[in-house]
Write a sequence for this structure.
């Protein structure tokens, strides 16, 4: 009978293939280098899953007390604030809106619109009252409406005033 | 709840170096206050009220084609401003140069050369800075979301102003 022995080494992750950074491969001719692929999809299926049941479960899991692993009893508002704070922190340095909105927390906030649409709109618009930010795509996705004049999405002050006006017209603010 | 950092100073030296490993205080100085209303591409053109961003369409939806995430639409935009592709970023008399940063074929940043040979950049939503080399705002080589390295250089005859 064959016995299988496992050691701690079997659980190690495989070593990263960093041929591009290696000085030996950098001396290769361009056509000899391994082809680089554009990574378009960066997040797991779970991270982009907007099914309300899975979303609620994920929100509960992600809002844990740092260092303890214990789940914090965060309210809906606090969950939004936690996600938005981290989204702003991690995307503030990017030059394009695509990089800013292509973040798991931003997509989760859009998904929270399915749990409580009016509350998430209020929270986003209250954040927008503090100053301009990249909330246009989230608001457009949640409301399926676009009050911003065509071609003006890159002007954040126009976007901000259009959505704040929309919020007042729909009695959300 | 602690507020999110809204400037390079609030990120702290450690926070800055985590994202830009070469951006030590000795390598740059701040030239403006923070302003979210424009990005580095608009800053090259001197605009301070709007983003210039080809990653979204006119209605604000992300464009799925990789072309719009690459440097090519930005190169075409800069060509309309009189820039032409060139080989190197070294200072040349009478010419203004820009450097486009790429990470994994995605456009990330653009910096403009000043007459003294330094470079000026709008760092995301943060301040404008003057940095003393292109390497100062290079991104971390092993992080997916970073500024990458300067890949394309363009130049035009320096405007009179």
């Amino acid at each position: 009978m064959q016995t299988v022995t496992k050691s701690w080494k079997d659980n190690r992750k495989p070593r990263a293939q960093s041929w591009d950074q290696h000085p030996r491969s950098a001396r290769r001719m361009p056509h000899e280098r391994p082809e680089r692929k554009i990574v378009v999809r960066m997040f797991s299926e779970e991270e982009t899953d907007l099914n309300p049941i899975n979303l609620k479960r994920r929100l509960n899991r992600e809002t844990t007390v740092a260092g303890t692993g214990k789940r914090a009893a965060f309210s809906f508002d606090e969950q939004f604030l936690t996600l938005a704070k981290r989204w702003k922190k991690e995307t503030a340095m990017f030059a394009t809106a695509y990089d800013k909105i292509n973040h798991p927390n931003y997509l989760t906030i859009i998904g929270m619109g399915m749990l409580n649409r009016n509350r998430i709109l209020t929270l986003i618009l209250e954040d927008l009252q503090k100053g301009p930010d990249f909330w246009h795509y989230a608001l457009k996705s949640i409301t399926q409406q676009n009050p911003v004049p065509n071609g003006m999405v890159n002007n954040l002050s126009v976007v901000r005033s259009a959505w704040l006006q929309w919020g007042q017209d729909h009695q959300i603010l | 709840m602690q507020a999110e950092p809204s400037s390079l100073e609030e990120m702290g030296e450690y926070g800055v170096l985590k994202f830009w490993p070469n951006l030590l205080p000795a390598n740059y100085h701040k030239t403006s206050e923070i302003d979210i209303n424009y990005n580095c591409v608009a800053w090259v053109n001197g605009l301070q009220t709007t983003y210039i961003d080809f990653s979204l369409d006119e209605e604000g939806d992300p464009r799925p084609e990789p072309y719009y995430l690459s440097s090519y639409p930005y190169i075409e935009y800069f060509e309309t401003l009189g820039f032409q592709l060139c080989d190197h970023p070294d200072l040349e008399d009478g010419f203004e140069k820009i450097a486009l940063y790429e990470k994994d074929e995605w456009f990330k940043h653009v910096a403009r050369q000043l007459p003294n040979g330094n470079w000026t950049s709008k760092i995301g939503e943060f301040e404008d800075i003057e940095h003393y080399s292109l390497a100062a705002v290079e991104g971390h080589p092993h992080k997916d979301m970073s500024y990458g390295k300067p890949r394309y250089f363009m130049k035009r005859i320096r405007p009179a102003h």
User: Anything to note?
Assistant: The helical segments of chain B are 8-19, 40-44, 72-80. The longest strand of chain B covers residues 95-103.
